[in-house]
Write a structure and sequence with these properties.
Elements lengths: L4 H9 L4 E3 L8 H12 L7 E3 L10 E4 L5 H7 L5 E4 L3 E5 L6 H12 L9 E7 L5 H6 L10 H16 L5 E2 L4 E4 L9 E7 L2 H10 L4 E6 L28
Parallel strand pairs: 1-2, 3-4, 5-6, 5-10, 6-9, 8-9
Antiparallel strand pairs: 7-8
């Protein structure tokens, strides 16, 4: 929700007009906020408009989408100054020495917005022989997600696939962890990999920088990490892709 709010804020703060094409999945909150803003400061009414259908009469573009649409965006908007954001995922690195409070904060990075955003952790690195029991216990505050039918359907479907194919997984009851090298994980599942040396994790991060939005960790030896619980609590100047909007 509100995926484009910070872009809207940047445009208005720089004294420009914003023309917004809403996502079909997120078409309520930004218009509601715009209404609140213009109620407080009516002068913004001339600075905010929403596009219906094809967009016209604009000077620059900020766009985000799934990867399949990005080549179309890049071609269609090539003649305009643009920021076309690539789909990314976030990862986390655990030392195995985290406290209960640290792990509770870390579950926010996994479960907020059901893990659907680019700042949601979809894969974690853990030491060899890591005990997942502490992490699954810390996640209990998000058990209410199981009451959501779409979340439960995703969990049931992917758990059935793993069982049918005899793929080992860690069962967190209302979520799962599967050993997998990929960054992308479906709703209700988290991928994990083990490491013997923190240097190998840093090498992976360096080699996949274009695919990673942020790294959540409080491990020594890793640079440019976000503290536990902070992946979704960023500042206005913590720009996606480090591109100053």
């Amino acid at each position: 929700p509100l995926a484009g709010f910070r872009d809207m804020l940047s445009v208005l703060a720089s004294n420009n007009r914003v023309l917004i094409k809403l996502s079909d999945y997120d078409d309520v909150m930004i218009p509601a906020l715009a209404k609140i803003l213009t109620g407080i400061a009516p002068e913004f009414e001339d600075y905010i408009s929403f596009a219906e259908g094809r967009m016209h009469d604009f000077d620059a573009v900020i766009a985000s989408s799934t990867g399949t649409l990005n080549p179309y965006f890049e071609k269609y908007f090539a003649k305009y100054p643009n920021i076309i954001r690539q789909p990314k995922k976030s990862i986390a690195v655990l030392s195995g020495n985290e406290t209960e409070k640290q792990l509770e904060r870390f579950t926010d990075d996994i479960f907020l917005y059901m893990g659907l955003g680019n700042r949601s952790v979809s894969k974690i690195y853990v030491p060899e022989n890591y005990d997942f029991g502490h992490l699954t216990k810390a996640s209990e505050k998000y058990r209410y997600l199981f009451d959501n039918n779409q979340y439960k359907s995703s969990l049931d479907y992917h758990k059935a696939l793993l069982l049918l194919n005899a793929v080992p997984f860690v069962d967190g009851d209302f979520w799962m962890l599967k050993q997998d090298d990929t960054l992308d994980a479906p709703v209700s599942m988290l991928n994990y990999a083990t490491y013997a040396s923190i240097d190998t994790v840093q090498d992976f991060i360096n080699g996949n920088a274009g695919k990673i939005q942020c790294v959540v960790s409080e491990c020594d030896g890793l640079g440019n990490c976000v503290p536990f619980g902070k992946s979704w609590r960023f500042e206005p100047w913590d720009y996606d892709d480090n591109t100053d909007t």
